[in-house]
Amino acid sequence: GQNIDQPTEMTATEGAIVQINCTYQTSGFNGLFWYQQHAGEAPTFLSYNVLDGLEEKGRFSSFLSRSKGYSYLLLKELQMKDSASYLCAVTDSNYQLIWGAGTKLIIKP
Amino acid sequence: IAGITQAPTSQILAAGRRMTLRCTQDMRHNAMYWYRQDLGLGLRLIHYSNTAGTTGKGEVPDGYSVSRANTDDFPLTLASAVPSQTSVYFCASSEVGAEGDTQYFGPGTRLTVL
């Protein structure tokens, strides 16, 4: 079966750095996405990785290792508004998007 | 309209009733999707459409139907609602071939079936 694993919940301190991990087992691989979802709102696109390595976008970076079936989302200089769920999703060989259950990130002052 | 709109925002429905959730996008994306999101579970694909006039079944299609008469609209119909269809429903769209087919989501419809 196809599976995306990410921690259910993480807690971090305002101003700090946090890394949210995602591991996947899918039938093929055509890209990995990270989305942010605030409570009661829709998911919003953060990043897309299809090649190994680090993609940086301001305070957010996303890393991919296809050989390890592994990605992480790195959030720097955490702000209270970063409190949200972070969803990892992988496009399989049929170009279907497989979603993880999400990681709820709690930011404390 | 900017992006994707969904209607209604929320709805309480009696079991057995028929309900259509509406979704409209103005980005001229060729692909559209319907998901449901339940607590503790990832987004689950109900139905999708790669282009106007075609539709396909996702992971959890039973009890739901869709149509895609034109590029902009992708309604989801529950023919006879059951309590297990209580969920938050998201519509999404993507431009096939653009940045891995990145999907953009509407604001969602919160549906309660009693």
Structural account:
The complex is a heterodimer of chains A (109) and B (114). Chain A is mainly β. Chain A is built from no helices and eleven strands. Chain A has strands spanning 3-5, 9-13, 18-25, 32-37, 44-49, 53-57, 60-65, 70-75, 84-91, 97-99, 103-108. In chain A, strands 2, 4, 5, 9, 10 and 11 form a six-stranded mixed sheet that branches. In chain A, strands 1-3-8-7-6 form a five-stranded antiparallel sheet, with no helix packed on it. Chain A is globular and about 40 Å long. Chain B has 114 residues and is mainly β. Chain B is built from no helices and eleven strands. Chain B has strands at 4-7, 10-13, 19-25, 31-37, 44-49, 56-57, 64-66, 76-78, 87-94, 104-105, 109-113. In chain B, the strands form two sheets. In chain B, strands 2, 4, 5, 6, 9, 10 and 11 form a seven-stranded mixed sheet that branches. Chain B has a four-stranded antiparallel sheet with strand order 1-3-8-7, with no helix packed on it. Chains A and B meet through β5, β9 and β10 of A and β10 of B.
Topology:
The complex is a heterodimer of chains A (109) and B (114).
Chain A: E1 3-5, E2 9-13, E3 18-25, E4 32-37, E5 44-49, E6 53-57, E7 60-65, E8 70-75, E9 84-91, E10 97-99, E11 103-108
Parallel strand pairs in A: 2-11
Antiparallel strand pairs in A: 1-3, 3-8, 4-5, 4-9, 6-7, 7-8, 9-10, 9-11
Chain B: E1 4-7, E2 10-13, E3 19-25, E4 31-37, E5 44-49, E6 56-57, E7 64-66, E8 76-78, E9 87-94, E10 104-105, E11 109-113
Parallel strand pairs in B: 2-11
Antiparallel strand pairs in B: 1-3, 3-8, 4-5, 4-9, 5-6, 7-8, 9-10, 9-11
